[in-house]
Amino acid sequence: MSGQPMPCSIEELSKLFLFEKLDADQLDRLCREGRVELFEPGYVYREGEPATCFFVLLEGNLVMSRRVGGDDVEINRSSQVGVYAGAMQAYLGGGPDEKSYKGSLRVTEPSRFFILPAEVFAAVLREWFPMAVHLLEGLFFGSQNTQRTISQRERLLALGSLSAGLTHELNNPAAAAVRATSALRDRVAGMRHKLGVIATGPYKRVTLETLVEIQERTADQVAKATPLSPLEASDREDALADWFDDHDIAGGWQLAPTFVQAGLDTDWLDQVAAAVDEQTLEGAVRWLNYTVETELLMNEIEDSTTRISHLVDAAKQYSQIDRAPYQVADVHELLDSTLMMLSGKIGSDIRVVKEYDRTLPNIPAYPSELNQVWTNLIDNAVSAMGGEGELTVRTALDGDQLLVEFRDTGPGVPAEIRDRIFDPFFTTKPVGEGTGLGLDISWRIVVNKHHGSLHVESVPGDTRFQVRLPLTAVDPDTDAEGDPDASTAPDTSQEPS
Predict the structure, then answer these.
(1) Dmax over Cα atoms in the chain, in whole Å?
(2) Residue 48 has what DSSP assignment?
(3) In 3D, which of 113, 36, 23, 212 has the Cα closest to residue 496?
(4) CA atoms of 216 and 346, how far apart (whole Å)
(5) HSE on the CB side for 340, CA within 13 Å?
(6) What are phi and psi of 496, to 5 degrees?
(7) Are 67 and 487 in contact (CB under 8 A)?
(8) Closest CA to 308 of 179, 173, 166
(9) How far apart are CA 161 and CA 439, in angstroms?
């Protein structure tokens, strides 16, 4: 947007805090190479346009804003004479076409600006203040490099924590499968021995066929067994132990728990007793006991290996191995995989509540990076609760956006720091326990890369981090502002100063 040209006054420039230390020749050069323009209410420049000029307010009122999703979010408003905005980083080198405005500038009333072309601003800054330029360059690039290095370090630490948790989670079912396999080998050997004893005994063919048929039904019954309450299980064990005693079977109290776990009762034992005579009943019962134990052990192995398979699937879902970085994804699958990966860190003293709206559609997103957001927010919630409390993960439709909310019962975020928690390097954790980049990275991924929003509401006992994501496609060919490692956090570099 072009303004109405107006004369430049050296005297007026000399009164601005930016230029008050300049001599007459320097002020004269500014007036010769710069210009003054009057802008009517509206936009002076828009975010993303080439950063061609440096603006200094002489009169009027300006508003700075950033694009978040489909909305312009106001970040500053000022009528102070001398505040500046625009091509703030022109002195870093590169032509004006290589840089763009990181925000939008508009005026709410007729306003006058002193305007310097970006190349002139860079030239005078380097010529008049060479040492300051070197210091500013070092500060800018050093800050970027530091932030990138610490960001990578934080990701490595998170990966180490997740790997430790995954190893712990995998160890339990793996160890259970090993134990069950060893026990199964013993039970199969015992079953072979009992089968040999039965084969050499005085059994009629019909009796053996009946025993085999009972064995098949026993195996089927184990698969269909329903869990009993502790009281019900205890009563049934007592009844079975009494049955064994009544039929002179030694050690019945040891056999009873296995039969109860398989869902067998005295009626089933009566069928076994009816199929064989009293002299061979105990051998037949113990042979069938091996069948029950074998089935239970195989069920345990199946459960353990299934658990391992689910953990591996969760790890693949979390890391998005062999998947395109940009795809249509189910947010609930991403949340579940992250919760499973972090289950070791969450611990047993934190109750996890899922309030999912399963009717929500899949959304276009970068799943692996959203998983990083979930990881950071869940990790912060667990730390805030001190390992004990309730974590609620909720999804819902909020207008034309998908809402993902993480609610914890921790002490909350104090009001005086609530506006700073998304700033780079700001942390409330003790030295060595936090880098202050978790929420900053999350903000960049949600806002810059997905064009959504990240917001916090907090009172003691109820802190809610709310992530809103658009339901429609975002542009996968994002520029540096979409890069979570780029320097595009809530930007103050071009706010009025």
Answers:
(1) 124
(2) T
(3) 113
(4) 43
(5) 20
(6) -55, 135
(7) no
(8) 173
(9) 17
d(CA 466, CA 404) in angstroms, rounded, equals 6
Contacts 24+ apart (CB under 8 A), 4-9: 4/37, 4/38, 4/39, 5/35, 5/36, 5/37, 6/36, 6/37, 6/38, 6/112, 7/36, 8/34, 8/35, 8/36, 8/114, 9/36
- Taken in order of first residue, the domains within the chain and their CATH numbers are 4-128 (2.60.120.10), 162-310 (no CATH), 324-482 (3.30.565.10)
Distance of alpha carbon 183 from alpha carbon 204, whole angstroms: 32
Candidates 433, 365, 430, 427; CA nearest to 402 is 365
Is the sign of the CA dihedral 359, 365, 371, 375 positive or negative? negative
469 beta partners = 402
pLDDT of 92 higher than 80: no
Plot region of 297 (φ>0 → left; ψ -120 to 50 → alpha; else → beta): alpha
Helix (H) / strand (E) containing 71: strand 71-78
Torsion of CA 92, 93, 95, 100, to 10 degrees: -20
Identify the band that residue 76 occupies on the pLDDT scale cut at 50, 70 and 90.
Answer: confident
Tokens 């542009």 found at? 475
Q: What is the pLDDT of residues 259-278, one digit of tens each?
A: 888 888 888 888 888 877 77
Q: Which of 114, 124, 117, 116 is nearest to 97 (CA)?
A: 117
Give the number of other CB atoms < 10 A from CB of residue 81.
Answer: 15
Q: What does the block give as tokens for 209?
A: 């066929």
Q: DSSP string of 410-435? A: SS---GGGTTTTTSTT---SPTTT--
Residue 124 or 279, more confident:
124
Predicted confidence (pLDDT) per residue in 7-62, tens digit: 999 999 999 888 888 899 989 999 999 999 999 999 999 888 888 888 999 999 99
